[in-house]
Specification:
Helix content is 27%, strand content 22%. By secondary structure, the protein is α+β, with helices and mostly antiparallel strands.
Length: 353
């Protein structure tokens, strides 16, 4: 998680502070770098950008470089078969598909209080019967503030802690957003965003676009969301405590499985598919592809999700990545982060032997 939210400065300052939180979310969504590793005027690589994450937020050995505080979830996906005409992926066919996932906070600090950020995340790995996998990382925000690698890197620089205060300089954040009007929809959303009291009542959005491919080779651009079937969504109370999300999740699971519907939003031909800062009109057709059922909770340090890299470009036949540059960048940065944290786990084990 990021450092605790600084005191109120102004209405604009509030938006900018949450904008700084979004930097962490984006990093979790990927410390962006081109697959080629270069953009002018300087060389930008996954290693450099993960280094920037560590410099901005600190290093916690053995933990993910973002979304560090989380919990493993285990269950399955029940297909509705309503998406079979859109994709040959077997996950949309009859039957159930095993799922191992992770619910987390977009933060680098695994010990931060759950109320420190208003955004939650869900990552899932579907293991299909034919041995293929579908991995996806989703966030409760509806879109990214920016849509290019260059803008993300500039945002990282603007959000670097000021040595005098240990917090981002609000003037730099204001200047960044002033130079990037495309962030206005995100800032409008974040002004109303409040930390929810439960993982179970959040919707989680892919934000990036993908393509479904059917048996005729036809491609349909989509974004997807996991929409909760639990309806009792309320903001977290001020006295909820630092770890209320996991406690709430376990209490709910003790009463029975938790469910989300997988809702596919189908793009029209002129909807943007390569810019995660641009939403699609609300009247786009949707398809409910099935239901995610979660019935087990595990600690992240020794649960099934611990060693999974939730790279969103790991896709089965019938689902393809779009040309959104942030997707390729996420994949590259996830790999760099994964190698670091797993290496640290091995070193910690050796040190205690």
């Amino acid at each position: 998680m990021s450092d605790p939210v600084p005191p109120e400065l102004s209405p604009l300052g509030k938006a900018l502070r949450f904008g700084a939180i979004a930097v962490v979310v984006l990093a979790a969504g990927g410390a962006f770098a081109y697959v080629k590793g270069v953009f002018t005027p300087e060389r930008l690589t996954p290693k450099l950008l993960v280094n920037t994450l560590e410099q901005n937020g600190g290093v916690h050995p053995g933990y993910r470089r973002n979304h560090a505080k989380g919990v493993c979830i285990v269950g399955h996906f029940e297909s509705s078969q309503q998406a079979q005409d859109l994709s040959v992926a077997s996950v949309f066919g009859p039957g159930q598909t095993p799922v191992v996932g992770r619910l987390a906070l977009p933060s680098v600090n695994p010990y931060a209080p759950d109320s420190s950020v208003p955004i939650r995340s869900m990552a899932l790995r579907f293991t299909l019967a034919n041995g293929q996998q579908w991995r996806t990382g989703m966030n409760s925000m509806p879109l990214f503030p920016i849509g290019t690698v260059e803008a993300f890197y500039q945002q990282q620089q603007a959000s670097a802690p000021d040595p005098a205060t240990g917090k981002p300089n609000p003037d730099k954040m204001k200047a960044f957003f002033g130079a990037h009007p495309e962030a206005a929809p995100f800032l409008a959303w974040v002004k109303t965003a409040k930390p929810s009291a439960s993982f179970a009542t959040e919707s989680y959005n892919s934000i990036n676009a993908f393509y479904l491919v059917n048996a005729q080779g036809e491609r349909q651009a989509v974004r997807w969301a996991m929409v909760p079937m639990a309806a009792d969504s309320t903001p977290a109370p001020p006295d909820a405590g630092g770890d209320f999300l996991q406690q709430d999740l376990q209490k709910r699971l003790d009463a029975g499985p938790l469910r989300w519907q997988l809702r596919l939003t189908l793009a029209n031909a002129d909807d943007p598919t390569n810019d995660a800062s641009k939403g699609w009109p609300a009247d786009r057709r949707t398809v409910t592809a099935g239901t995610l059922v979660i019935d087990k909770l595990e600690a992240q340090n020794d649960g099934e999700c611990r060693d999974i890299n939730y790279d969103p470009t790991v896709l089965p036949n019938g689902i393809e990545a779009s040309s959104d540059p942030l997707l390729a960048a996420r994949s590259a940065a996830y790999a760099s982060s994964y190698l670091r944290r797993t290496g640290e786990v091995d070193q910690l084990k050796e040190a205690h032997q």
